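Hello Y.,

Per our agreement to keep a running log of every chain we model this quarter, I'm adding this entry. I've kept the format consistent with earlier entries: sequence first, then predicted structure.
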Amino acid sequence: MPTAREALLDAAHAALAARPWPAVRMVEVAAAAGVSRQTLYNEFGSKDGLARALLRGAADSYLAGVERALGSAGGTGDRLAATAAWTVRATRANVLVRGLLTGLWGERLPHPGAGVRCSASAVPAQRRADAGPPTPAELLGQVRDRAVAALDEGRPPHDPAALATACELALRLALSYALVPPPPGMAGDGVPLVRDVVGRLPDVAA
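Predicted structure for the entry above:
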């Protein structure tokens, strides 16, 4: 059974899918979650706090998917291709992930703003969310660093700079596919192109 916080985040996601964020009302989110409005404020502090929690949750969910993709079977090219495919799927399926990775925030979405550097929330998860979500450059850097660590572990040594370049190229190719779908007849997730690019880089094991 979901916690009150999880139910509230689910209700906020559903509300955001139905209407622009400025039109989402806290009382409606609380009612949809089956809790009191006071419980919502106890968890998130404010509507801005709820927005930051939504964005932090989207970032964490995307990064968890990255970890799964990097842990899949195959060599460097296969695992980077899996990470690219997940990035395309996540960016297309979740407008918050799209905003976090691209910095493209429409009027319908909660904006990350400047974040709250020192949170007084009594809820540990909200204190973390109040620090603000990562910028696109920070999020891409986190994925790149995770990929370098995962792909180097227990394998023949790579050239670190070449491996970091391969990881960054795979991610940027994935984002290009997410933002500009390919023409009919071409793979929609960029996997063949990622494998081809990685295979052409020197000192990166396939």
